[in-house]
């Protein structure tokens, strides 16, 4: 399979690679920069910052940040981005699947759902999330459309 991917933790060996990834100019208003995300990550104790890697080339093609939100105790996907040169090849959909699998495998607190938010005009992200099983809920006070995926009990 030509577009197999894997997730790898962001650490001192690959953080510069992560901050060099960029979305297209038309998407910049929709997603925070990876520099901002990595700074924010330093203050989120139950979060993971992950590089999305092409298995074929072992090269970082995207970035994700997700974990247990300190405000509501649910899992949140704060960031999911694929580099502009790698978009349109199904990597966002595959990355979302890997993130959901990782959360399910590590959900030892039986948290009932994963929540994410996206800009209402970001139709590409909306399509990926809805095809991935997320259901739109309400508009957040900060202007994003929220969506939720129910996690089945593991026991």
UniProtKB/TrEMBL annotation:
Identify the residues that the record assigns to the N-acetyltransferase domain, covering every copy: 5-155
Q: Record's superkingdom?
A: Bacteria
UniProt xrefs under Gene3D superfamilies:
3.40.630.30
Q: Please name the SUPFAM superfamilies in this protein's record.
A: Acyl-CoA N-acyltransferases (Nat)
Q: Which Pfam families match?
A: Acetyltransf_1 (PF00583)
Stated name of the protein: RimJ/RimL family protein N-acetyltransferase
Q: Which organism is it from?
A: Sutcliffiella tianshenii
């Amino acid at each position: 399979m030509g577009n197999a991917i894997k997730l790898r933790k962001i650490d001192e060996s690959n953080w510069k690679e992560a901050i060099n990834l960029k979305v297209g100019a038309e998407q910049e208003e929709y997603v925070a920069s990876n520099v901002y995300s990595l700074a924010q990550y330093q203050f989120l104790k139950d979060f993971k910052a992950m590089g999305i890697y092409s298995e074929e080339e072992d090269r970082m093609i995207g970035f994700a940040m997700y974990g247990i939100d300190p405000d509501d105790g649910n899992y949140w996907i704060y960031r999911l981005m694929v580099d502009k040169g790698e978009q349109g090849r199904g990597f966002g959909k595959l990355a979302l699947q890997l993130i959901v699998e990782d959360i399910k495998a590590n959900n030892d607190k039986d948290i009932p759902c994963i929540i994410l938010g996206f800009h209402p005009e970001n139709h590409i992200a909306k399509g990926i999330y809805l095809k991935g099983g997320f259901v739109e809920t309400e508009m957040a006070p900060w202007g994003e459309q929220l969506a939720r995926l129910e996690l089945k009990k593991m026991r």
